Amino acid sequence: MRGKNLFAGVIEPMVLERPSDERLIETKYSRPRANEHIISRQHLYKKLDNPLKRKLTLVTAPSGYGKTTAVLEWLQKSGVESAWLSVDQNDNNPLRFWRYLCAALDKIAPGIALEAEYVFSSQELINAHIQINIIIDWLMMIEYDFTFVIDDVHLISNPLIWKGLSYLIDYLPPRMHLLFISRISPGGRLAKHSIKSQVQKLVANDLRFREEEIEWFYEKRGFALDSQDIKIIQNTTDGWAAALVAIAMSMEESTDNREAVVNLAWSNIEQYLAEEVIGNWPVEKRMFALKTSILDTLYEDLCDAVTGDDNGSRMLKELSERNEFLVSLDEENRSYKYHQLFKDFHSKLLEQSAAIIRADLHCKAAQWYLQHGLITDAINHYLNGQWYDAALKLIETQLGGLAAMNAFDTALSWLERLPPTYRDKSVKIAAFYSLFYAEQNHLEMSRQWITKANDLMQAISDAETKGQGEILVGLTWTNLLLMEGKIEELFSVLKNLEAKGRLDKGIEFYDSNRSDIYFYRCPVNALATQLTEKNNELYEMIEENYRKATTKNAGYFALAAGEYYYEKNRLDKAKPYLVQALELAQAANCAGVIVPAMVNIARIKRASGDLPRAFQALEECQNRLKTVHKAHWNMLLQAFTMRLCLDTGSMQIITKWLNTNKLNIYSDINKVMEFEFIVFARVLMAGDQYDDAEMLLLRLLSFAGGESRQHSKVEILNLLAILLYKKNDLAGAVDYLEKSLSIGMKEGYIRSYVDELDLISGLLKDAIGIFRRRGDSYADLTSYARELYKQVQDNMCGLSIPRHGGTASPRRKLTAKETEVLKLMLAAYSNEEICSKLNITIRTVKAHTGNIYSKLGVKNRAQCIKLVRETPLLE
């Protein structure tokens, strides 16, 4: 996470969008009620039948073709289990969209929304599709077929949401089928799925009413029309459902059905609605429809708030009972929405009215949504009504939280709708832009915006407001200075902030590590880690301020020290810090410390050659995560387990992991999954898939460079060097190693090289000779490489870790537990029986057997047993 998050606890928190009225959420995922006058359309239902033959059914047609009605009727007749999500224009925020989608799927898999809820505190986790992986894993357990419907998909324009939907389709659970209802075709957004024949389509021509269906349509409404009238309607409307409904409404207002049909010589549906339908309504009803047309969802009390009357219940009931372009979303909660044609018609009428009327309606709607805790809807109505002062005030309350979770797009979409004069006068907006540009690594732009924020703050006359501005500007400066690595300036700013006495906000704790399995991986965390010895005064000051801002110490600073000393290969000094970090993190239930601390403990066990206890540490970590309920940490922990399995040669376990982790060399790379991809590259190398491994590593290198992730970059460069060395490309291998060593020497890395053991040993030896021949300009690099080679050799001496593609280590004395395992192997016990006999896990058994094979210099059980029987090893 970026520097802004190191101090996020003292930035004004976001007003969380938590509706005070649960029906406002339930409406989103309640299946609309089918029209009681609906007719059976068998040719459509046949096309919709057997939904699981395709991953996705796409029902696409312009407004008014009866798309939703057809799907509702099919679901009712087919008996297929289903869940439903209705989207609107405000759902283009990925956080909001996926939260609603998980809530809708709770009907199919109860608990899925609660399991995924934590993801929505981080835009990075959302972009990494963690919530979708949770959805997929949960729905894999469903044993019956079901359909998930998303209505009005055309309103989704955010490319991140479409990328997520495409990912969901790629890994869709076998019993799940998606059905999208849309006014326009998603086009290229689903192109790859169409090419793979994963999409079944229904279009406008499928939905047009046939002549006999038109006759049944009017008969069900009590209108008897002769064949001539039916033909006129068919020819004029071309089977368009919205026109059929409009004519029916006109017939209800007329005593002469024939006259309603004759009047069908209209130029468009809007003219017909105005003259033949709505024109005959009483004034009260027309005004109600006009005023409430600004709303996406209609509730009785919301309508009353907007119109200023108390007729919402009566009007909605009348419109619903007469089927007058009103769709019932949730009968129990009495929520509705207008048919889009009807809504668009009234919106155009409203545009023609005085601006002050529209503004007043939007203001009333915004106030109602704000009262009910829906901040996004309130902001959008304020902006639509041009109530910019109110919008600005509300937007400012959201900026700190949105920046902390990297949800910049949401805030930017609001800010772009504000006139420049409003954006240019806000200290908070200027600070937000500084954070945004820092996140994009446009540090010069970030500095320009924080300078502007400082100027705006200096011009404030009110002492209290100015004081708050000073704190905000100071904290934003710390973010930029951390990004720039300007330690002395950072120290000065923090001293000034401390002097203000405004750093205590009393939050529980702020999770500054959302997804890095090594705390070192985040550039800002790495800087804080290095301060352990480089600038201990600043380190202690940051730690003290963090503790002031929290009611719980989650152990981050002990973890930072532990990782620092581990990387320096001072393992004995690292241990107590890691244990302390673990104890603090467990009390705070903070996975961002629990996982890295336990992983580093496992790395220390591995460094001493004790793989079984390394696996035990990971198993203990899994147990501790059971109370955390953050799925992506389990995914990262599994990846590190595979890293150890490579040491034991447990390819069967690794293959199983590959079949479930949804990784491929072309997948999008992100911070959350970076470590999984690196392990994936190692697995490819172990399987001699060098070309694929190289392509993935080059993509990872580009990503790590763009994100300034130096620790990751060194590991990736090392793997590229090792890969080329295996391919006998010494020159290319040394080039990559030189780039790695240049970074490692500057940062003081040791374990990043030593942990590669024999994979890098020979390469380091060859590189030292090449560097020496290059002369004095390579003296420092040669010296650094020589020291690393020595430490690699020292760590390899006597270690029992077999390497894929390498030679076995020298024989060493077996441990007591390994001797027990070997005796049971000699007695012909299977791994599962050994597991039961010794009360250990199958993974631990395999780790022991791997160590035994390595120490004895054999490759499998048969060779092991033969060797032991021929030599007195057990004695």
Provide the descriptors you would attach to this structure in a database record:
3-stranded antiparallel β-sheet, 5-stranded parallel β-sheet, 8 strands, 875 residues, disordered N terminus
In summary, what is this structure?
The strands form two sheets. A five-stranded parallel sheet has the order 2-3-4-1-5, sandwiched between helices. A three-stranded antiparallel sheet has the order 6-8-7. Helix content is about 65%, strand content about 5%.
Describe the structure.
It is a single chain. It contains 47 helices and 8 strands. About 65% of the residues lie in helices and about 5% in strands. The strands form 2 sheets. A 5-stranded parallel β-sheet has the order 2-3-4-1-5, sandwiched between helices. Strands 6-8-7 form a 3-stranded antiparallel β-sheet. Helix 8 (about 160-170) links the parallel strand 3 (about 145-150) and strand 4. The relative contact order is 0.06. Helix 39 runs antiparallel to helix 40 (about 730-745) and helix 44 (about 815-825) packs across helix 46. The model is unreliable at about 1-15 and about 805-810 (pLDDT under 50). The chain has about 900 residues and is mainly alpha-helical.
Ordered list of secondary-structure elements with their pairings:
Blueprint: H1 23-29, H2 42-48, E1 56-60, H3 67-78, E2 81-86, H4 94-105, H5 112-116, H6 123-127, H7 130-139, E3 146-151, H8 159-170, E4 176-182, H9 191-195, E5 199-202, H10 204-207, H11 211-220, H12 227-237, H13 241-253, H14 257-262, H15 269-277, H16 283-292, E6 298-299, H17 300-307, H18 312-321, E7 326-330, E8 335-338, H19 340-351, H20 355-371, H21 375-384, H22 388-404, H23 408-415, H24 420-423, H25 427-439, H26 443-458, H27 463-484, H28 487-500, H29 523-534, H30 536-548, H31 556-567, H32 571-588, H33 591-607, H34 611-625, H35 631-648, H36 651-658, H37 674-686, H38 690-706, H39 710-726, H40 730-747, H41 751-754, H42 758-773, H43 779-796, H44 816-826, H45 831-838, H46 842-856, H47 861-870
Parallel strand pairs: 1-4, 1-5, 2-3, 3-4
Antiparallel strand pairs: 6-8, 7-8
Helix pairs in contact: 1-4, 13-15, 17-20, 20-21, 21-22, 22-23, 22-25, 25-26, 25-27, 26-27, 27-28, 29-30, 29-31, 31-32, 31-33, 32-33, 33-34, 33-35, 34-35, 34-46, 35-36, 35-37, 37-38, 37-39, 38-39, 39-40, 40-42, 42-43, 44-46, 45-46
